[in-house]
Design a protein that fits this description.
Elements (H helix, E strand, L loop, with lengths): L6 H22 L6 H19 L17 H23 L11 H22 L5 H21 L3 H28 L3
Helix pairs in contact: 1-2, 2-4, 3-5, 3-6, 4-5, 5-6
Length: 186
């Protein structure tokens, strides 16, 4: 099978990775215990670049046709996710009082959870069966990813934000796709 390389997306991803690496290094390095949060950020951006290159929406199952997606939930979750990223960075730079503890152990756990969430998500896509369990596994992986952000950025503000805003959004999306699946099997 011949592999097709999308050079526009590849060049864009290289630019984003290089720019992000430099930007977040300069942004985070002046602060105490910054290294693991920086590594977390770069792993997160690398994963998002991979998803962009493959034309995947990281927060929605890609085994449903585009016309079946709920664009309101899609937009709200995207807003939540990217604002979580900003809140995480802000916690390190300005909101020091919202840090869980200023220890490197939490960002390390965040990195491990991020990798686990990504692996679990990828595994749900590789399963041949499409059922409620697959949808649940997919959204469980997204829950792991959003909570990894709270730990990756050592932010209890982000932890509360995940619980109050993120979990209800994930629940609504999960219910939406479960109902869509029950109505029309794929």
């Amino acid at each position: 099978m011949k592999m097709h390389i999308n050079f526009k997306r590849l060049i864009w991803n290289i630019f984003v990775l290089l720019y992000s690496g430099l930007f977040f290094y300069n942004c985070l390095s002046p602060y105490k215990n910054w290294l693991f949060s920086y590594l977390y950020t770069m792993f997160l951006i690398l994963w998002l670049c991979k998803e962009y290159y493959q034309k995947n929406l990281f927060f929605q199952p890609n085994y449903f046709p585009d016309e079946m997606h709920n664009y309101l939930l899609r937009g709200l979750f995207a807003l939540f996710f990217y604002s979580s990223f900003v809140f995480g960075i802000i916690t390190i730079v300005w909101w020091h009082n919202y840090q869980i503890l200023n220890l490197p152990v939490f960002p390390i756990i965040g990195i491990v959870l991020l990798v686990y969430g990504i692996v679990l998500r990828e595994r749900s896509f590789r399963m041949n069966k499409r059922d409620k369990q697959t949808i649940s596994q997919f959204y469980f992986s997204i829950i792991i990813v959003i909570f990894s952000m709270a730990l990756g950025y050592n932010s209890y503000f982000l932890l509360i934000y995940d619980i109050i805003v993120g979990l209800p959004l994930i629940y609504l999306q999960s219910q939406y796709y479960t109902k869509k699946f029950e109505m029309k099997h794929f």
